[in-house]
Structure formats: structure tokens, C-alpha cells
Design goal:
The structure holds two protein chains of two kinds.
Chain A (H helix, E strand, L loop, with lengths): L1 E10 L2 E11 L4 E5 L6 H9 L6 E6 L2 E2 L5 H4 L2 E3 L11 H6 L9 H14 L15 H13 L5 E5 L7 H18 L2 E6 L2 H7 L2 E6 L2 E6 L1 H6 L4 H6 L4 E11 L2 E6 L2 E5 L9 E6 L4 E3 L5 E10 L4 E7 L2 E7 L9 E6 L4 E5 L3
Parallel strand pairs in A: 3-8, 3-9, 6-7, 7-8
Antiparallel strand pairs in A: 1-2, 1-4, 4-5, 9-10, 11-12, 11-14, 12-13, 14-20, 15-19, 16-17, 16-19, 17-18
Chain B lengths: L2 H30 L1 E2 L2 E2 L2 H8 L1 H34 L5 H7 L8 H12 L4 H10 L11 H12 L1 H12 L3 H9 L4 H12 L1 H17 L2 H6 L6 H10 L3 H26 L22 H25 L19 H8 L1 H31 L6 H15 L2 H11 L18 H24 L2 H9 L4 H29 L5 H4 L7 H10 L3 H29 L1
Antiparallel strand pairs in B: 1-2
Helix pairs in contact in B: 1-14, 1-17, 1-18, 1-19, 2-14, 3-4, 3-7, 3-8, 3-11, 5-15, 5-25, 8-11, 9-10, 11-14, 13-14, 15-25, 16-17, 16-25, 17-20, 17-22, 18-20, 19-20, 20-22, 21-22, 22-25, 24-25
The chains are: A alpha+beta, B mainly alpha.
């Protein structure tokens, strides 16, 4: 288990991590998601012990390690560029973390073989790491991190250096592997797809602030802040007013109609910023929202329409070829993909 | 390594460096303005009043500028020729042209003597053709020095420009051609501006080597004095104070060269490309044959002195008098080197001194590199500056500075008597070796991915184990190459040795000069060949170590 309590870190004038608290359960896979500069890598380095927090505590497997060096924390870490030792063979890389253990040579060999087998690199022990492909290097890095059987596995952008074609397969393999071993894992990524597929829960960091922790469905379906809704998926901003409070959400008057939306701590009559995802509206000849299709973009199974409604441009997902550019359409709310947030004004 | 350990370590290293490289120079400066009774500018005034002194300083300056122009043009042109034009044998000629880099300066100078000297091969050929018995020319003075400088120092710009061209994006040339530029215009407006940093650094190396050049003016100068030879004779005359002023003048010239070159090199334009070696057009063009001819001719001309050296080493003593080419051949010159203890002793001496200096400098350089790893820290910058000092300041100056420093017993100021002992010359080699190894290792350690250290730490390795199992093995190639270079520099050193040697530390270079003075040119040549072979062997050994670890 990993517990981070009120951790803060500044680099000179910049606050990189601001008062972050986070608990990762035993065996859980947690993704730290955020754009570059959001502080997610710094968080990982704070947990690994490469940085010391200015405030707060870090607890690994029940032990307060805030003042403990990286050497004594022994987190298994996979670096973004792998940081394999180029002068050592695959086997020696994997065995590096086993030195100083009370184990004889054959036990160490067995552990190396075992770790390589985990990542599907049986028989590669004597190869030079520089002769491996990017995907193989990534797996060696993983085997090296896992060989000493750490309590926590830390992955820094584990797939960012792989070809797109390889990335998806590796992502699946990585997901299966960490689940099979059942190791507590924290990974850093800026790709939400990666975070959603790999992690049980996702912690979204923006500007050093932990905005929301939850399952991928939570983050998408119940964003805690407009920033979360904006980061995960596409949204349009529409002004509105709360007309009633329904179970688990609100009804908002906006766009000459009423829209059911998620929303908390709102009162009837409150002005809100209504965030609509492209699936929140659908073409409906009886709909109350009238507009003109300005642009149509083919996005696979569906079309993404840009519909001009007065002052607003709305993105709408529609069946292919259901509306031509320049034609008038009517829209109505679909009942999903709408999130209301109170405005300060 | 913990932060405090680094801080203390760096401070101690800075103290040692200050003691070895800075204090001797400061003492020279003090001696220049100190008379028998207190401070005085007498020596400076004497220097300023004496036209001979001015002439030597001026000669040093214009020879340096002319050397930069000649060697810079030659080296850059040859690099462009062997990199950008495709012709058969390009790679081989390219490698051969880099050969003079492994030759100790004195050996190069001796090779010139055998080829162009009054009784050299060319002079004899002219005499044989014209039937005269008088030497057709005297190979001495400024012309001789410039010829030697141009044809030995071109390797610096040549190697640097070749290196820069290796990471030059060929798409830039193609882009220029696609925009309608002729090949010459493309080279003039695209290639040369991008090579400016390399050419600037090459020019600086030529300027510093020329200012420091001692062997060529010493052997071929005749009445033509430059500062390094002038200050030796001033010292021999006993005008210590004036010699110190001359030494300072030389330091000032060298520092001016460093400043000028940093301007010339500019801020360094970095290409945005991916950095592939330029693929010279494979098709035969009108350039192919002339280019090949020029490259072959240049290689032949530049390697000719070394061939002459090799040839002369097989000529029996006294057997070659009037003919253009020798008529008798022998291995005796090499046999005597091995058979006579007085002949091989200098080799043993040079070997141990050069090995000691290179190995000690390498160990020290590793410590400095560890302490100066973070370039943003002020201590790092000071360490770097101290390391660079013996690189910028001519060797003659350091020899004199060390002789001054270690001529007195003042333990509180770090001065002990080493002059006349076995240790002064190796110590001088060590000081000369410091910038060679130090700069290479510092830049190598900064090129290492810091994540490697973190990876080792997260796998439970303590700082010493990280150093031993990760950092040092990865520094190995750079360390080996630089140590070999430092070893070779010490092995062939002449300018420091001629000032500091004692009977017990008589190195090979002085033995070579002695052999020439006694007319044993074959033996001198054999010494030179063996020295060149040992140097090449050291480089090969370092290269093998490099390819094994890479």
C-alpha cells in the first residue's frame, strides 16, 4: 500500500506539487494522469525517493519513508527511457538489483530466468541490451524492476517510447502482467486511453493539484471540476440556469430547452456553466434547438457535426450522412454527457 | 554521492588544482615585478625598451595568425573534400590524413629536417640533378616554421570539421540545391556557416599550438626568435626577471587567442536536422577526378616527411653522403636502441614518466568529473576553468612556472624543492595531461543519463557501487581515449622536458636531438619511428577498449 499525505514540492519559485494526498491500495493499479508540467512525474519521483518533499509524508507498505533514500525504499522503477545499463547484458541488468541479497548464484540465476520469463524474454539473458528493439528494452526494464520483488512498481510513461503499432499490444501485456503478479503499481502517463486501460483508478493532476481520483467511468461520467471534464474528452461550454434538482443531478435550462446534467451543491435558480460532450445532443426533427450544419467530420462509425446555433458552435455526434453541410437541423438533449458547474458570477 | 560529500570533495580538488595550475603562474607574475629589493617594474621596462623582445612577441603573433590561416584553410578544405565529394579510396585517404595527429611534435619536426633540410632528401635530389655540391637552400626561418605549422597543425581543423560534417544534415544541401544554389554557393552559404563552431575551435587549437610551438622554432628558427625560444635563451643568460615578463607576454597572447576564437566560433548554430552523415552524390561528376587527384596529392605531400623519417631510420651511419636516395640499408639503428643501455634508458624513463602522468591525471580527472558533474554549480565552473588553464597556457610557460614554484622550500605556501629531483618532470607532464583527460571525462560524465544512477539506486545500489558498476564502466571509453592521448603527449614531450629534465629524467625527445647533433641521423630517425609506433599502439589499445565496452 502507498499513502501520500499532504505532499508539496517546489522547484525554486515554481510549486510543482501542491498538497497532494493519495492512497493506493494493496495490489491496486493507479494511474497519475495529466498534461506535461502537471507534476505527475515529480509525484512518482517523490514516491521513489529521488526527490524529497517540502511538506507531507510518504508511507510505503506501512513504513514512513519520507526521510529514507531511494536506495532503502527499493521501489521497482521503470524509467521513461528505460535507463538500462548499456555496458551490461540483459541478464546482468536484471540481476543488478539482486546483489547483496542472501542468495547463492544459482538462486540468483533462477530469479533472473524467472523475471525474464515473466516478460516473455526467456533465453535473452546473454544478449547485449543495446542490440534489442525498443519493445524488448522496455520489457528488460520491467524484468529488472520486478526481479528484486519490490513492494511497489513505478512506471514513468512506460509506453511513450514505443511505436504506435506496438503500443496497444504492449499495453495489454503490461495490464495482464501487473494483474497476474498482483503488485501495487503506480504509473505516470499523459495519455488518457493508456490510463483508462491500465489502471483501476486514475488520479488526475493539473498544475500540481490533484483534481480527482476515481475509476475511468467516474472521471468521464462524473467529473468533479470543469477542468477534469475538459481534460477527459471533448466539451462545449453553454450558459444555463438550474430549474430543479433531480436525484443525483440537476435539470438546467439552456439552449431554449432543458438538459439533465450531473451537478453537486447547486441550488434552483443558480447560474451554471453547462459542459456538453458531443454525445449530449442528437439530431431530432422534434428538437427544440435549431441550427445549421457548418462542418462535417468523419470520425469512423459516426460523424462529428459542427452545428451553429445562434452565437454558439455545438459539436454533435450523429449517424453517418444524417445531415449535409449547410442544412438546417433540430437537436435535443440525449440525457447523457452533460455536466453543470456553478459559476462564480 | 551525497551532496555534502560532493561539496567537500569539490573544495579539496579545487585546492589541489589551484596549487598545481594556478599558484605557479601567479608566482611567475610576482617574479616579473619583484626585484632584489622590493617591487619594481624594471624588468617590464627592460622588456618594453628592447626591440628584440618586441620582435619575438610580434613574430609569435604573426606566425600564429599565418598558421591559423594556412592550417585552417588546408584542414577545412581537406575535410570538405573527403566528406562531401565522392571518389574511390575516399575513406582510406580520409583516415591517412588524420595520421599526423599521433606523431609527437619533435618527431614531426625531425621528419621535416630529413625531407626539406639542407642535407635532406629533396635538397640532395636537387644537388644530384644540378651537379652542385652546395645545398640549394637553407631550410630555416619563418618560412620553414610556417611550412611545418601548416602541414602538421592542419589536423585540428581537419578532424573537427570532419566531426562536424558527420552530424550535418544532408537535406540542407539538397534544400539549397533545390532552391537553385550551385554547389559552391551551397557550400559557401550553408555548409561553412554551420561549420563555424568547428572551424573556430580548430583555429583556436592551431593558434594555441603555434604560440606554444617550441620544437619547430628551436630546430629551424635560426636567428628568427619567437617568444618560447626567446625566453629559453633569456633564462640561459640569467635574466630571470625578464624571462618572467616574456613568459607573461606569452600567457597574455594565448588568452587573447582564446577570447578571439570564442568570438570567431560564434554562439554555434545547431542544425534542427536528424544528423545523418552527408551522402555524397554517388554519380561521377566533373569533380571526381580532380578531387581524387587533389586528395591523393595532398595526402602524399603531407605524409612525405613521415615516409622520409621511416626511410632514414634504415640508413647506416655515414653511408649516405651525396646521392639523392640512400644506397645502403641496415637495421643497425634499431639494434643499437635495444642493445645499448644508454640508448634504451631514455625510453624506459619516458615510458614511466608518461605512464605515471597519464594514469595520475586520469584518476584525478575522474574525481574532478564526479565533483563537477552538475554544470550549474559554481564550484563546477571553477573546477572547469582551472582544468582548462594548462590547456590554454603554452607548455614552456608551465615548465618555467613549475620550475619557479618548486625551487624553494616554503611548505606553508605549498612550495617544496623538487627541482633537480626525479619528480619535477613527471609532475609537469601531469599538469599538461590534466586538461586533456579532464575535459574529456567531464564532458563524458555530463553526457551520461542521470536516470542510470537513479535506476541503480532504486535497485538498492549504494553510491560506491553505482560508481564502480555503472559510472566508471560507462566513462571507460572516453577515459581510455583521453588517457592514451595524455600518455602520448608526455611520451613525445620536448618543450617541457628541455627546461625541466635532469640527468635521471632524460627523455627520448632530448636523446633524439642529441643524436642529430652528433650526426647519428639514422638513430634519431629510429627513435622517432619507435616513438610513433608506441603512440599508435597506445591509441589502438584505447580504441580496442572502446569498441569492447561500446
Amino acid at each position: 500500500m502507498v499513502v501520500v499525505e499532504h505532499v508539496a514540492k517546489r522547484f525554486e519559485e515554481t510549486a510543482v506539487v501542491r498538497d497532494v494526498s493519495l492512497t493506493v491500495a494493496e495490489g491496486e493499479v493507479m494511474a497519475l494522469l495529466g498534461p506535461s508540467g502537471s507534476g505527475k512525474t515529480t509525484m512518482l519521483r517523490l514516491i521513489a525517493g529521488f526527490e524529497t518533499p517540502d511538506a507531507g509524508r510518504i508511507i510505503l507498505a506501512g513504513r514512513d519513508v519520507t526521510g529514507v533514500s531511494a536506495v532503502d525504499r527499493r521501489c521497482g522503477m521503470v524509467f521513461q527511457h528505460y535507463a538500462l545499463f548499456p555496458h551490461l547484458s540483459v541478464g546482468d541488468n536484471v540481476a543488478y538489483g539482486l546483489a547483496g541479497r542472501q542468495m547463492d548464484g544459482s538462486a540468483r540465476m533462477a530469479r533472473v530466468t524467472e523475471a525474464l520469463a515473466l516478460v516473455d524474454l526467456k533465453g535473452y539473458a546473454s544478449r547485449a541490451v543495446t542490440a534489442l528493439s525498443g519493445g524488448q528494452q522496455q520489457r528488460v526494464a520491467l524484468a529488472r524492476a520486478l526481479a528484486p520483488e519490490p513492494a511497489v512498481l513505478l512506471l514513468d510513461e512506460p509506453l511513450s517510447n514505443l511505436d504506435p503499432s506496438l503500443r496497444e499490444r504492449t499495453r495489454r501485456e503490461l495490464r495482464d502482467l501487473v494483474r497476474r503478479i498482483g503488485i501495487t503499481t503506480i504509473l505516470v502517463t499523459h495519455e488518457q486511453e493508456e490510463a483508462f486501460e491500465l489502471a483501476d483508478r486514475v488520479a488526475l493532476l493539473l498544475n500540481g493539484v490533484l483534481e480527482q481520483v476515481g475509476s475511468p467511468e467516474d472521471l468521464y461520467g462524473h467529473p468533479a471540476t470543469p477542468a477534469v471534464a475538459g481534460f477527459i474528452g471533448r466539451v462545449m461550454h453553454v450558459p444555463g440556469t438550474v430549474t430543479s434538482i433531480a436525484d443525483g443531478g440537476v435539470v438546467v435550462r439552456a439552449l431554449a430547452t432543458t438538459v439533465r446534467a450531473t451537478g453537486r451543491a447547486l441550488e434552483v435558480g443558480a447560474k451554471v456553466d453547462l459542459l456538453l460532450r458531443p454525445e449530449a445532443l442528437c439530431i431530432d426533427p422534434a428538437g427544440a434547438i435549431a441550427g445549421v450544419v457548418e462542418h462535417r467530420r468523419f470520425v469512423g462509425a459516426r460523424d462529428l457535426l459542427l452545428v451553429r446555433c445562434g452565437e454558439l458552435d455545438l459539436e454533435v455526434l450523429a449517424d453517418p450522412l444524417s445531415a449535409a453541410v449547410g442544412s438546417s437541423v433540430h437537436l435535443s438533449p440525449s440525457g447523457v454527457g452533460a455536466h453543470a458547474f456553478g459559476t462564480s458570477a | 554521492m551525497t551532496r555534502s560529500w560532493r561539496g567537500y570533495g569539490a573544495a579539496v580538488l579545487l585546492l589541489i588544482l589551484g596549487w598545481l595550475v594556478l599558484e605557479p603562474l601567479l608566482l611567475v607574475a610576482l617574479d616579473a615585478i619583484r626585484g632584489s629589493d622590493g617591487w619594481t617594474l624594471d624588468a617590464v621596462r627592460a622588456f618594453v625598451r628592447e626591440p628584440n623582445e618586441w620582435r619575438a612577441a610580434w613574430n609569435s603573433l604573426w606566425i600564429a595568425l599565418a598558421s591559423v590561416v594556412l592550417a585552417g584553410t588546408l584542414g577545412t578544405a581537406l575535410a570538405l573534400l573527403t566528406r562531401l565529394v565522392h571518389f574511390p579510396g575516399r575513406a582510406l585517404l580520409g583516415a591517412l590524413l588524420a595520421l599526423p595527429a599521433v606523431l609527437p611534435p619533435l618527431v614531426g619536426v625531425v621528419a621535416f629536417l630529413f625531407l626539406y633540410g639542407e642535407s635532406g632528401i629533396i635538397a640532395r635530389a636537387v644537388m644530384a640533378l644540378t651537379g652542385t655540391t652546395e645545398a640549394p637552400w637553407r631550410f630555416e626561418g619563418a618560412g620553414a616554421i610556417l611550412l611545418i605549422h601548416a602541414t602538421t597543425m592542419y589536423v585540428y581543423p581537419y578532424l573537427l570539421v570532419r566531426g562536424a560534417l558527420a552530424s550535418f544534415d544532408p537535406a540542407l544541401l539538397e534544400a539549397a540545391t533545390a532552391l537553385g544554389a550551385s554547389r559552391w554557393r551551397a557550400i559557401r552559404t550553408v555548409v561553412l556557416p554551420l561549420l563555424r563552431p568547428a572551424i573556430g575551435n580548430g583555429a583556436l587549437l592551431v593558434a594555441l599550438s603555434s604560440l606554444a610551438s617550441f620544437s619547430a622554432p628551436y630546430v629551424f628558427g635560426g636567428g628568427f626568435r619567437v617568444l618560447p625560444t626567446q625566453l629559453i635563451s633569456t633564462r640561459l643568460n640569467g635574466d630571470i626577471a625578464i624571462a618572467m615578463v616574456e613568459t607573461l607576454a606569452l600567457v597574455v597572447l594565448a588568452l587573447v587567442a582564446v577570447v578571439l576564437a570564442s568570438r570567431l566560433g560564434g554562439p554555434g548554430v545547431r542544425g534542427a536536422g536528424k544528423g545523418l552523415a552527408p551522402a555524397p552524390s554517388r554519380r561521377r561528376s566533373a569533380f571526381t577526378l580532380p578531387a581524387m587527384g587533389v586528395a591523393l596529392g595532398a595526402t602524399g605531400w603531407l605524409l612525405l616527411p613521415h615516409l622520409a623519417l621511416l626511410m632514414v631510420s634504415f640508413v647506416p651511419v655515414g653511408a649516405w653522403t651525396t646521392s639523392a636516395l640512400p644506397t645502403a640499408w641496415t637495421l643497425t639503428n634499431y639494434v643499437v636502441l635495444v642493445a645499448e643501455p644508454s640508448r634504451w634508458q631514455p625510453f624506459a624513463t619516458s615510458l614511466w614518466m608518461a605512464t605515471f602522468a597519464a594514469v595520475a591525471a586520469a584518476m584525478f580527472a575522474v574525481l574532478v568529473a564526479l565533483a563537477a558533474r552538475d554544470p550549474r554549480r559554481r564550484l563546477s565552473r571553477w573546477l572547469e576553468a582551472f582544468l582548462a588553464l594548462p590547456w590554454a597556457v603554452p607548455g614552456t610557460v608551465y615548465a618555467i612556472a613549475l620550475a619557479t614554484m618548486f625551487a624553494r622550500h616554503q611548505p606553508l605556501t605549498g612550495r617544496i624543492i623538487l627541482i633537480g629531483t626525479l619528480w619535477l618532470l613527471p609532475l609537469a607532464y601531469l599538469v599538461r595531461a590534466l586538461p586533456i583527460v579532464g575535459r574529456a571525462v567531464v564532458s563524458a560524465i555530463r553526457g551520461l543519463d542521470p536516470a542510470l544512477d537513479e535506476a541503480a539506486a532504486s535497485l538498492g545500489a549504494r553510491p560506491w557501487r553505482v560508481l564502480w558498476t555503472v559510472t566508471l564502466p560507462l566513462l571507460g571509453p572516453a577515459l581510455a581515449g583521453a588517457t592514451a592521448l595524455a600518455f602520448v603527449t608526455g611520451l613525445g614531450d620536448f618543450m617541457t622536458s628541455v627546461i625541466l629534465y635532469t640527468y635521471d629524467t632524460r627523455p627520448v625527445s632530448l636523446e633524439i636531438l642529441g643524436a642529430i647533433r652528433q650526426g647519428e641521423i639514422g638513430v634519431a630517425a629510429a627513435y622517432g619511428v619507435v616513438l610513433a609506433l608506441i603512440s599508435a599502439g597506445a591509441f589502438l589499445l584505447a580504441e580496442r577498449g572502446r569498441s569492447r565496452t561500446a
